[in-house]
Design a protein that fits this description.
The protein has about 600 residues and is α/β, with parallel strands linked by helices. It has five domains: about 110 residues, DNA polymerase beta, N-terminal domain-like (DNA polymerase, domain 1, Orthogonal Bundle); about 50 residues, DNA polymerase, domain 1, CATH 1.10.150.20; about 90 residues, 2-Layer Sandwich (Beta Polymerase, domain 2); about 80 residues, 2-Layer Sandwich (Beta Polymerase, domain 3); about 240 residues, Alpha-Beta Barrel (TIM Barrel), CATH 3.20.20.140. The chain has 25 helices and 17 strands. α18 links the parallel β11 and β12. α2 crosses α6 and α21 packs parallel to α22. The chain starts with 19 loop residues before the first helix and ends with a helix. The N terminus is likely disordered. The structure holds 2'-deoxyguanosine-5'-triphosphate (DGT), calcium ion (2 copies) and zinc ion. 2'-deoxyguanosine-5'-triphosphate (DGT) binds next to α12, β4, α14 and α15.
Length: about 600
Amino acid sequence: MKAIAFACVHLGGRRVEFSTKDCLYRGSTFRMTNSRIADIFDEIADLLEFQGSNPFRVRAYRNGARIIRDLPESIHTVLADDSRKLTDLEGIGKDLAEKIQTLVETGALKQHQELLEQVPATVLDIMRVPGLGPKKAALLYKELNIATLEQLKAACEAEQVRQLKGFGAKTEQTILHGISIAAAANERIYWAEADSVATEIRELLGTCSSIEQLEFAGSYRRGKETVGDLDVLVVSQDVSEVMQRLGEYSDLAEVIGRGDTKMSIRTHKGLQIDLRVVPAESFGAALQYFTGSKDHNVAIRGLAKQRGLKINEYGVYRIDGDKEVYVAGATEEAVYATLDLPCFPPELREARREFEWAAKGELPELISIKDIRGDLHMHTTATDGRASLEEMVAAARERGLSYIAITDHSQRVSMARGLNAARLLAQWAEIDAFNKRLGKEFTVLKGIECDILEAGGMDLPDDVLAEADWVLASVHYGQQQSREQITQRILDAIENPWVTAIAHPTGRILNRREAYEVDIDAVFAAAAEHGKLLELNANPARLDLHDVHCAAAKSHGIPIVINTDAHSIDGLDCMRYGILQARRAGLTKEDIANTRTLPQLRSLIRKGRSKT
Ligand code: DGT
Ligand code: CA
Ligand code: CA
Ligand code: ZN
């Protein structure tokens, strides 16, 4: 699976369910990906730490996991090249290379297997509860004999956990909350991850000569921020060829079931994939049906009924006495046409406003990635980014952008070596020099991601912010504060004349951290009043603002800026996730600030300054 750059958000690994048994079962088709190897190393580190092993050993495995996860190429590419050795790769020593080799060849590591036998499997779930980790899990196990999530939940509810050293009443609440988040997280994955699986499956099934049509349906096609399972539809005259090929998927853990026209498999990360083989005359009807959403389909069936039609996954039928006559089904367009409806973009099929828009002939022309001219949130090596200013500029130009803003962290974010005024001014001088060399074709805006301090107020003085072209204001600290406090901090930032936009306005991280408490309507009202922008952060783990809030912002007339928040060159490719989210909100090119030309954008920024 292609590694996805998730910027500063660390993603907890899922349980690595893999044993030599899988390997034998999967025979010659088995394949270890970089991310699977990294997951196994991380799990070894967790298990060792749980056992109280030597911290250096633990760290060695964690470093190994990180190095492999970040490799720009597949381990297999290196192994297949006789002229190269794993140890040539930066950070990979002899020991690590041997372990990778063993994993690739045999699918398992003896040490991993032994650890899994020594530590109860359910303890791994406990370690992965947000706020816990191997050390705390070990303490819970040793002191309170807690080995399962159920036991942990019960112990928290019985207020036993607060008696342990380092735990308190608040920790119990956090754990209970974390358990419910972890339960949800086990079921749904980020769209971006689903996309990399879908791409692999598309490639794999693409090698079936019998396949005439292939589409993914379900929440994945609708571009939902998280996906429960993948639904794939094909037209093929040779069902067994298709099913056999799906059974050869490199990341297959289990075939859940296989029937005449339907097959379900599961990947190692627990993602289910449902394959359906349908007749050509039903392909459009099946695609419409399985794309959903369920609510959208309920509405569709109601509309069909009013016209004496019946609609299901096989087609649209006219009810004629006790006969049903097929009228359409080969394409989605034909299916919708029987109801005089347009073929809705999948992102809009949520039974929100799409039918109302269609009735008025006002279906919005949704934003597309081609409309984007700039990216206004990214980090460099000056703080916690992995690429230099030069490298980010080159990468942005390669991606066809005509302007970017460099927005490194401000000083409060000491973990990321946030910039103080002096360092920031030095960076801006560098940018000025840079722009001179770049000429008119490309512009780097002098920006900053300035923290909104816990006590209120901005992390840098106004006279410094006044020199910026572009100021993002972010809440990174004090996210546990009351709704009043957090709302007030954000409102004050909006009222600061030099602030241009609020970055990731609700602070949520999908599956891991809920939004902080904030009166979002008050934020909308203030942003509208003061001509400020709100960000749709395109990081696949954030997607903040979420779709419903994006639509609400639009109704307040607030321009949305879709930013990648890239911490690396690859991070710039996150833009498309933000685009999908904006499309789900029904946003058009006009609603998005960074579709503007630079002069238009500058005038938008000036407007915000003059209104505060
Ligand atoms: P997910 O997988 O939880 O992220 O969400 P979906 O929307 O992909 O849901 P899924 O995989 O259960 O089913 C795919 C689509 O098939 C769903 O969006 C609508 C349609 N569908 C499935 N079951 C039913 C049903 O019982 N009634 C109706 N009306 N539609 C259904
Ligand atoms: Ca699905
Ligand atoms: Ca499904
Ligand atoms: Zn940022």
